[in-house]
Amino acid sequence: MQTARPEQEAGGNGAGEPFVRLVGICKSFSGVSVLRDIDVEFLPGEIHGLVGENGAGKSTVGKIVGGYYSRSAGDLFAFGEPVDSWDPPAALRRGIAMMHQELQLVPALSVAENVFLGIENSVGGLLRDDENERLADIAAFAGFDLDPDALAGTLSIADQQKVEIMRALARDARVIVMDEPTSSLTHDEAERLHAVMRKLRARGHTIIYVSHFLDHVLDVCDRVTVMRDGAVIRTAEASNETKATLVAAMIGRSAAEVAYPDLPPEPDRSGTPLLSVRNLSTETGLLDVSLDLFPGEIVGLVGLIGSGRTEIARAIFGADAATSGQVRIEGMDYQLRSPRESVARGIAMVPEDRRRQGLVLTQPVRPNMTLPHLDTFSTLGLVRGKGEKAHAKRLIEYLGVHPADVDGQVINYSGGNQQKVVLGKWIMSDPKIVILDEPSRGVDIGARRRIHEFIGETARRGAGVLVISSEIEEITGLAHRAYMVSDGRIIDEFRPSETSVDDVMWRLFHEQGNEGTARKAS
User: Fold this and answer.
1) In the CATH scheme, what is the homologous superfamily, with its name and number, of domain 6-258?
2) How far apart are CA 304 and CA 290, in angstroms?
3) Contact, 112 vs 138, CB < 8 A?
4) pLDDT tens profile 318-341
5) String of b and e for 351-387 (b: at least 16 CB within 10 Å)?
6) 3-class secondary-structure state, position 26
7) What is the Cα Rg of the chain in Å?
8) Architecture of domain 263-346+432-522
């Protein structure tokens, strides 16, 4: 790490001229207004939280500061000077870097190459092969332990997010915009990141912290700005806020109204399961996995990082091949599994990584929702656009996608609204079995509530829902039953209504200790 510049040290703890100031900032996409008259200041040496529902505009503010979006109106000041031409390179030259919620790594490059991409050391036009040494200093500062030679595309999402964090640190920016940096991190890893942020603040850096984790915001931020519907509701000292006051400001109603929705009625388990898995093993590490899912039932999978939760979902869906075991759908053998065949049999799977595996970012909302179902809207190979548009519009209204534009560019939508589009894609076919891998990752309170309602509605119509979540509280709030997963095995089954979160965590860590592993909690 480089040492702080003199002006950084002089700033300290929110004193002096704002590093960044937004005055009357407006932003529209395709005529749809997403920011309205934004006035906010980011002071030297402060951690400044931006909170709001998905679609409130907080990430858009961050991207305008970082140069990724141009403003439609208003004035932007960086370090006391007005900004005219503004893009990411210009922002970086002025000392502003951005960490994106949706990862921006090059999969075929190593960890070290990604961290220093564009800022490589060179002598006489030749690159110096010193990335690993430079990375060691940054990794030590951040407390991350990653193989510098590992290809980014082979890393877990949590580890890829660590690479993004180190990219921002490598650029030694005076202002760092962090957009949902803890969405894939464990509790311990999030605490480690917060320690890094405090170190940067002590050196005079400013952190703009966009997050839907309100506990994290209250823990680490000096000030917090609340946004709703593209406008600033208020900016206040974080010490004067509580989770309840932030929620009320974000959504215009109390925190009590955003608790988990009521569970659907207890399902009838006397008949044939919708899904029955027996002794399933795979080359990805599953060993003798057995589970059942009944009509109208919500079943959770919980475990530590690397436990095999996602691998179970992928093996059922046919994305990973099995080496042994049996899968039955409504009592019928399902041996030659593949994603295409699973869709035909009424199985839908929403993957963890919505941008890489769930969406076509170059396409609008409508084809993203209808692409797997074009046969439904086609005659002699020609798509009936009117019918396709009508179906997409109904799903947009049902899920509360915002902006409610069938031809809106999905790449410009917030994380929560992108997730709703992915959900819409799969419920269009009215599936019998819905597998959701981290359905609320990177999603704010309002969108999270709508997704949870959708899960309950799906079970009430008689489908079975298998939910994977890193948040044990989410499973205990949503599921009728749940399975604990460790080291590729199902180690126990429990009823959330009769089991505490502490008991689940104790069992998972106890099992982890027996295996002699060193995984961290999800």
Assistant:
1) P-loop containing nucleotide triphosphate hydrolases (3.40.50.300)
2) 18
3) no
4) 999 999 999 999 999 998 899 989
5) bbbbbeebbeeeebbbbbbbebbeeebeeeeeeeeee
6) strand
7) 24
8) 3-Layer(aba) Sandwich (3.40)
